[in-house]
Amino acid sequence: MRSFLNTATLSALGIIIYLIINYLYCGYIFGKRSHLEVKHIEFFSAFVPKMIFSIGKNFSIFNAILHKGILAKISFFHMYVGLGMIFFPVLYALIKKKEISDFSIYLLFGFGGILVSLFYSYYITYIDDSIRIQSNAYLYLILFIVINLPKNTINYIKILIIGILIFNSVTVLIYSENIKTYISRYEKLIDSSSRDKKMFIIYKNINDNNERNDARLLLFKAILIDKNYQIIESNATDHHEFEYYIRTSDITGKP
User: Fold this and answer.
1) Is the dihedral of CA 17, 21, 23, 29 positive or negative?
2) Which has fewest Cβ within 10 Å: 59, 96, 117, 193?
């Protein structure tokens, strides 16, 4: 228990130092937020259900297997699988009356603490609630699961991981031709635009996460970055001062 407390104390100290540095440089412990357009939603009726769904969806093993188009059609099943993966190891330990080690307690503490802090940060900024952000917390949970599952189950997981790697490799090969087609089309859009290395991207709704995270739009931005373009984003109603601009519908093909 002493080692757990020492580790937790040092971790907390590191976080506090980071927040102090933010405050000294920005005047805010979480960094400057004045540039964000935050529209708060009701906490219990809207925010909490959304975050529960987000946890389950992002942690589900189907994230590593299914294409997003298929994923959207079974999203509720996807969520239940993810939540089951989170709670099963804890329930197993309780049912079997297995003694949870100090290190396992630390892992659960780390998972809970980081996840809560990420959710709070998202609630006040609405920047991102994706697996890219939540994975900071999931690392602790994955280690807890691996440590507390039976050895024979771990062997099955190894087989599953190998299967996932093969499946994903085949998927990349299948879709690579489509990616090349998109790259060729996007480079023509870029060549016909501004020559001063600035690209104005006009959104139908710049606060719409589905529009912002469209895979085709992200690929277009990646090509721009690779070509050293400056990306300037705006809403559809705010682009009149731009001489050259491109709409997200031109990129994604969605009207």
Assistant:
1) negative
2) 96
d(CA 203, CA 14): 39
Chain-centroid distance, C-alpha 4: 29
Which token pair is 225? 């970055």
Output the CA–CA distances (angstroms, integers) from residue 87 to 55, 84, 93, 94, 119, in the order listed.
Answer: 12, 5, 10, 11, 19
What is d(CA 255, CA 246) in angstroms, rounded to the nearest whole number?
A: 13
Find all residues with CB under 8 Å of 100, minimum gap 6, and list them: 93, 148
pLDDT per position as a tens digit, 94-142: 777 677 788 888 888 889 989 998 888 888 777 778 888 899 899 999 9
Residue 83: partners with Cβ closer than 8 Å, 6 or more residues away: 52, 55, 56, 59
**Contacts of 53 by beta carbon, 8 Å cutoff, 6+ apart:** 75, 79
Task: Give this prediction's pTM.
Answer: 0.65
As a whole-number percent, the residues of the chain with pLDDT over 90 amount to 8
Cβ(42)–Cβ(23) below 8 Å? no
β-sheet with 246-247: strand ranges across: 230-235, 198-203, 246-247
Number of CB atoms found within 10 A of residue 201's CB: 22
- The kind and range of the H/E element at 198 are strand 198-203
Beta-strand relationship, 198-203 and 246-247: parallel
The H or E element spanning position 199 is strand 198-203
Residue 111: half-sphere exposure toward Cβ, Cα within 13 Å: 19
